[in-house]
Amino acid sequence: MDTQAESTLTIQTLPSYEMRSYRRKVKSIAIWSISFAALTFVMFIILDILLSVISKGVPGLSYNLIATQTSGIAGGLQNAILGTLLLIALSALISAPLGILAGIYIALYAPKRFGAVIRFFSEVLAGIPSIVIGYFGYMVMVLQWGMGFSALAGGISLSIIILPYIVRTTDASFRQIPKSYLEGAIALGMTPLMAMRTVLLKLATPGILTGVLLAVSIALGETAPLIYTAGWSNFDPNLQLVKNPVAYLTYVVWTYLNEPYHSAHQLAYTAALLLVMIVLVLHVLVRMLQRGSSKHA
Amino acid sequence: MLNARTRSRIFQVAAGIAAVSPLLVLLFVAGVLFVDAWPAFKFQGFSFFTGITWNMGNMYASNPIVHNGVEGAPGATFGILPFIVGTLGSSVIAMLIAIPISLLSAFALVYKIPHRYARWISSAVELLAGIPSVVFGLWGMVVLAPIVANQIGPWLSHFGKVIPFLAGPVGSGFGLLTSGIVLAMMVIPIITATSRDLIAQVSKLPIEGAQALGMTTYESVRHITFPLVRRGVIGAIILGWGRALGETMAVLMVSGNATNYLPTNLYSPISTMASTVAALLDGALTDFSKLSIHALALIAVTLLIITMITNLLARLLVQLGRRDVGTEA
Known about the structure:
Oligomer: heterodimer
Number of domains of chain B: 1
Order of helices and strands of chain B: HHEEEEHHHHHHHHH
CATH topology of chain A: MetI-like fold
Helix content of chain B: over 70%
CATH superfamily of chain B: MetI-like
Largest interface: A-B, 96 and 96 residues
CATH class of chain B: Mainly Alpha
CATH architecture of chain A: Orthogonal Bundle
CATH superfamily of chain A: MetI-like
CATH class of chain A: Mainly Alpha
């Protein structure tokens, strides 16, 4: 790397006779000023999005919102809140064990080539647009497998979307730990499983949790894979997971904005506010976990 | 009671099986899509990608027409050029806005903002990345579209004499430009965060050395950091582009949903491939010949292939970029 930096320097030599002239100083200051402006712009957009969601959404907050179900274009959001929680829970229940196991395997036990192959395909899976997963879920699960619009079809679609994220973060948090820890534990006579559980798991846990929380936050905000798998229902979800449509928050934001009624718009704004608030809480949790884990390392 | 060795063996096998799951899911999804898409490709051929007219035909008729051995509803013809143009157009506008803003922000974050503020700002940028796309869509509809219709659009249309594509009419604010701006806001955090991480890994020593030799801070970054992170930054840009290509909901909410014509100016309503699948799937189901559904599958396959290529290229470049700055051996 050092040699690379050196060669860069020699190739792009500045005219050395030119002293640190006024013009060069002005150019530097000008470009950094534009950079500050760009950063300020990004901050402004973030604030604008948050503030417009808050200012539009807050008037709709009331006890009724969480106590009643949607009826037509008015009412509360109880069904959507519970439905979103159910969908997230289902997708996490499917993806977390699978993804964490997969991550452990490719980080610790897999032959190098095999690990690289899985990592590669996992990234490919992560790059698939969510509407494509939605189409797949609809054609295969809803129609062909006869699940109908249901929590299970929606949950499985979401789990396909978040699986690669959980694999990636688990893999990364185990690979961060020096290889000698695992080798040392095995040299002391531990089995690979014991070594993983007693020595490595504790160090990797904050990273794994971070990944699961990020995955939950992604699942929470998805709409496209759910439109044609989860459907919509004006009633609270129940434990019948197939052939029983389920409501979710992002659907409210998407459809109710197009209704010509004020009450519908208000529901959409408030649903957006709830989504942003949950994302914000998850974000803070992730930050705290990351800070905690960086202190240990 | 199993002994420890056996348990460990069982665990490893189970984990190994789990590890294959992303691959299996990927193959299954891709397989289903390709099989579903095939009849539409047989029916329409390559004119699928070059045709302007998307017409699902008379879906309630009972006398299917047969073309290339595939049955379709009378009058059915599937051309997705407007969707391709909409997808590329909106994402290119998004990148034109996002690239300079993201890169300048990333460099400023690493080199000019004091560490404790930079941490907060980075955190806010990552929060932006986590905001659901429907919320971006909502912001686009409620806040941005009126601004585009009343301020940005009329101002840009003054340049219409020089660049005809910028000329009015500005329209309702729902269209190509608004979609592009909303997409830009969605990819800015991706490009900023990825390039910031790369830039932060560059060793400080050569930069300090360069400054000690009399370079300005800008010059030291331009001539030392930038060549080292160039590949990785290009990777980050393509990563963001892939996201813009596949985004569905936000675009669906602000694009104006046009079908069957190409955008005539910067403010024209558009549709993208992703938003079309979402918008038309419901209606396509009523097609008695099922061909409309196959045609949507073909859009999904096209999108899948494009985003796969961009993503792989991006991951590869980011990986190589990390090697350039020495974080990964």
